[in-house]
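Schema walk-through. Below, the input block comes first and the output block second. Nothing else is stored per chain. Lengths vary across the set, and this one has 100 residues.
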Amino acid sequence: MEKPIEIVIFGAEVKCASCINLPSALETMEWLEAAVGRKYPEKELQFRYVDIHQATDKDEAFAKAILEEEYMYPLVVIENDVVAEGNPKLKDIYNKIESL
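--- output ---
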């Protein structure tokens, strides 16, 4: 059986200053889950949301990088590779999924 593809969206309850007119990180995850699920119904996808202020050890490195402004959020990470930050583009996410 094929291992599920893990798609992690990092964000925070409060939007970043440059993201005021964009959806929240949680809304972004819900949108991605619907869009990617429709595009790849045959793939086993595992979506996970991580609040950068409550990250566990597993997610701490990405959360810390966001807090230190190395990345903007929402940050989309697929199989531990950063695929998108800020306003994610479906094409980039699809390309990563197809490369796996």
